[in-house]
Amino acid sequence: MTPQFFLSQPAIDDITEIADYITSQSGLAQGEYFLAKLDEKFAHIARFPKLGRQRDDIFPGVKSLSVDNYLVFYTATPSGVDILRVVSGYRDLKMLFEEAD
Fold first, then answer.
1. pLDDT (tens digit, 9 = 90+) per residue, 59-96?
2. CA angle 69-74-77, nearest 5°?
3. Closest residue by Cα to residue 86 from 22, 17, 26, 23
4. Of 22, 40, 75, 93, which has the fewest Cβ atoms less than 10 A away?
């Protein structure tokens, strides 16, 4: 069975916000391109969940990988990975996960 990725509701909200922003700034084609790039990165993370940087400094058990100026935060599961958040690398990352508690 191929490893899968699962998007949390906060990750879905993040992706929607980012895609809307890119589309408003650069057009629909760029927004769709970014979504395709994210989908490809999520599938890659699911196949190779150990790739990312361990981010215990932010939240225990979380890893991150970058896509352009954004960070994908995820945790490995027996069936693949859970994508927790997709956020700008310029955000206060510790606050991001404190808000989620």
1. 899 999 999 889 999 999 988 899 999 998 777 777 77
2. 155
3. 17
4. 40
* Domains of the chain, earliest start first: 4-100 (3.30.2310.20)
Structure-token pair, residue 68: 């352009």
- CA 21: distance to chain centroid? 16
Burial class of residue 23, CB neighbours in 10 A (0-12, 13-18, 19+): middle
Instruction: Determine how β-strand 80-88 pairs with β-strand 4-7.
Output: parallel
Reported in sequence order, the residue ranges of 1-101 that DSSP labels E, i.e. its strands, are 4-7, 53-54, 63-67, 70-77, 80-88
Q: In what order do the strands lie in the sheet containing 63-67?
A: 4-7, 80-88, 70-77, 63-67, 53-54
**Which of 61, 22, 66 shows the shortest CA–CA distance to 41?**
66
Buried-exposed string 37-49: b where 16+ CB fall within 10 A, e elsewhere: ebeebbbebbeeb
